[in-house]
């Protein structure tokens, strides 16, 4: 066998070995970028199953029994404890976009004045209402000046008399 020890032969052989490593690195980088675009599914909250809800009988059971059967509620009504809310939500988030709500369930257990179950209601995503908040702005007192008016209005305010020492050796405090 004849070996070629010229510099060109070894350089060509080295390039052949580096190409697959470079291509493998590029493929891994592309794979990671595509994996980062996978949507993330989040499930939060708890809603009791239909079997558990059937065990709760309106007019017969109190708060303690409901808590034993269904567990602690997600939320209790704000001013009185006559409504318990069990809430669950499933969302899909894609990269940096706003999450999309896939599924939302709410179970409301309402109690009467004696603490006995009065009614059980179920709500799904379709039952929700879109609330449009008021976007008006409260005006601030005073006059709004344009950039040019602000720039021109400041010319007379900067003079050497304001920065000079005041009688008694005190300065104006401006620098």
Q: Would you give an account of this structure?
A:
This protein is α+β, with helices and mostly antiparallel strands and about 180 residues long. The protein has a domain at about 40-125: Beta-lactamase Inhibitory Protein, Chain:B, domain 1, CATH 3.30.1450. It is about 30% helix and about 20% strand. The chain is built from five helices and five strands. The protein has helices at about 5-35, 50-55, 65-70, 145-155, 160-165, and strands at about 40-45, 75, 85-95, 100-110, 115-125. Strands 1, 2, 3, 4 and 5 form a five-stranded antiparallel beta sheet that branches. It is flat. The chain starts with 6 loop residues before the first helix and ends in a 12-residue tail after the last helix. The mean pLDDT is about 80.
